[in-house]
Specification:
The protein is mainly alpha-helical and 287 residues long. The chain is built from 12 helices and 2 strands. The C terminus is likely disordered.
Length: 287
């Protein structure tokens, strides 16, 4: 566990060096977040106004509701993949010794518009099917679905950088992602303590700290505005954590792809640290 944490901390520091060299990389998660919020507003505000959710609560989901939900999934996935591709593409330019701009990243994503859309179509279909099975299944089926979801996430780990760099479609990108991972880390592998897990721990610590502060405020009969201030700081801190987490994860993915495809993760990352991003699984089954 300690080795996994140490390796993750090294990955965070290396990814942060790339972000420090190109601070504009954080713009892509901001664009993604704003776009997803706008998409949610376009879908759910009209539904709220016409009493859609009350009808669903009384009658359940109909065929048309699943179509609407799938369309939302598809567009949300596409927005996220588009901006992740822009982020990873720009990060790869920096890792390879270049000096990217926001425009460079957006151009990379725009040039791969069609493959990204079809990959979003595949991913949203898989995601929705797994969600429906998990929602309606029993405990065993939920465990199976979780395992399938894990396998899918690992198998598609390098799809975004592959789509950003290589002139292939989404299905071929999935195949190459699996091939790169197998070639570099072996047939059975699992991820070590990840960057996302580190920031999740940071978020949990923040919640604990906020809880303690609120308890002290209640005990001291503090003024109402102090609660608002604590809440505002917590929201800002949460947004900051999310943006940095998304940016560093994109940079980290770019480094893993660079290492898997060329054997050299670039000047910002230590090869051994990237090599330890995955390790052999104890379960002797191919993923």
């Amino acid at each position: 566990m300690f080795n996994s944490f140490s390796n993750s901390w090294s990955l965070i520091k290396s990814s942060a060096k790339v972000l420090e060299a190109d601070r504009e990389l954080i713009i892509f998660p901001i664009i993604s977040g704003i776009a997803v919020l706008l998409l949610s507003a376009v879908f759910f505000v009209p539904m709220l106004l016409v009493g859609y959710f009350g009808r669903v609560a009384n009658q359940g989901l109909q065929v048309v509701d699943y179509i609407i939900l799938f369309l939302f999934y598809l567009l949300q996935y596409f927005i996220i993949f588009f901006n992740n591709t822009a982020l990873v593409g720009a990060a790869l330019i920096r890792i390879r010794g270049g000096d990217p701009t926001v425009r460079d990243g957006l151009k990379i994503a725009y040039d791969r518009f069609v493959p990204l859309f079809f990959y979003a179509l595949i991913a949203s279909t898989v995601g929705m099917i797994l969600s429906l099975i998990k929602e309606r299944g029993n405990s065993i089926s939920k465990i199976i679905v979780s395992l399938i979801g894990f396998v899918w996430n690992v198998a598609t780990f390098l799809v975004v950088p592959i789509l950003a760099v290589e002139e292939v479609g989404p299905i071929e990108a999935i195949k190459r992602s699996v091939a790169y991972l197998k070639k570099t880390w072996g047939e059975q592998l699992v991820g070590t303590f990840s960057i996302g897990a580190f920031f999740t721990l940071l978020f949990i610590l923040m919640i604990v700290a906020v809880g303690l502060i609120v308890a002290l405020l209640v005990y001291s009969s503090a003024q109402p505005w102090t609660y608002v201030a604590v809440f505002a700081v917590a929201v800002i801190f949460t947004l900051g954590i999310s943006l940095i987490n998304s940016t560093l994860n994109g940079i980290y993915t770019a480094a893993v792809y660079q290492y898997a495809s060329s054997g050299n993760p670039g000047t910002f990352f230590d090869p051994e640290t990237v090599q330890n991003a995955f390790q052999p699984s104890r379960i002797k089954k191919p993923f």
